[in-house]
Amino acid sequence: MKKLFIFKLMIIAMSVTTLISCNDDDGDCYCAEQQDAARGTITNASPNSGSLDFFSDENKINSSALNYTDTFGYYNFYTGKRTFSVKNNAGDILAQTDIDLKNGDYFSVFAVNTFSNIELISYNDFVTYPKSNNAVVRFINLSSDSEAIDIKSAAKDFAAGLSFKEDTEFAEVSSGFYDFTFYKTGTGEVLFSQKDFELRPGRIYTIYTKGFVTPPSGSNDTFSTKTIVNF
């Protein structure tokens, strides 16, 4: 099958759609200029974190700070061992992680967990292009207090016991409209239902959970989902 490395990123939040493609160096934006490069996205999935800046080594990646659920990219990155970090407006390092990047890699970096326990985690975005009239989807559990979850549709069980920060494999499915239901593992409690979501032919999706099963005092950020259309 033809292999596909993802070149465009489209963020969907319910009915709002924004198209984001590979970023060039626009003054305050990281861009590796050499031919050998890896390409990655950055996402703020940390509730109550405020706006965040992402760095690769000492280089600031984003030109504008990322608010909660914002995703920017894909950016070009130098290959080799890179230290990714996230900082607040005061420039304090809040979390960091090392990633060994190879030429041609496509990946996503997320800031996750509550602000007091914020951390960075990365995922590989390499997938196989779907067959005609099919789509590809993966799920990531980024709801910090959800424990384990099951994800099902009428046609397919997508995940069983998916823990916080755990992702599924990319699954190729028939295109069309799906009702995704998110359950608390072992209890059958419905945490969230994503109704009439269209998986379009030839598209590749990442759906991640966010918010809280039990929101802290003063928060209305309940358990829900955010969708990234990777291609």
TrEMBL record:
This protein's UniProt keywords: Signal
InterPro entries: DUF4397
Transmembrane annotation, as ranges: none
PROSITE patterns the UniProt entry points to: PROKAR_LIPOPROTEIN
Domain DUF4397: 42-151
Keyword Cell division carried by entry: no
Ranges in coiled-coil conformation: none
Signal peptide: 1-18
Presence of the UniProt keyword Signal in the record: yes
Domain of life assignment: Bacteria
Protein name, entry field: DUF4397 domain-containing protein
Species assigned in the record: Flavobacterium phragmitis
Species classification: Bacteria, Pseudomonadati, Bacteroidota, Flavobacteriia, Flavobacteriales
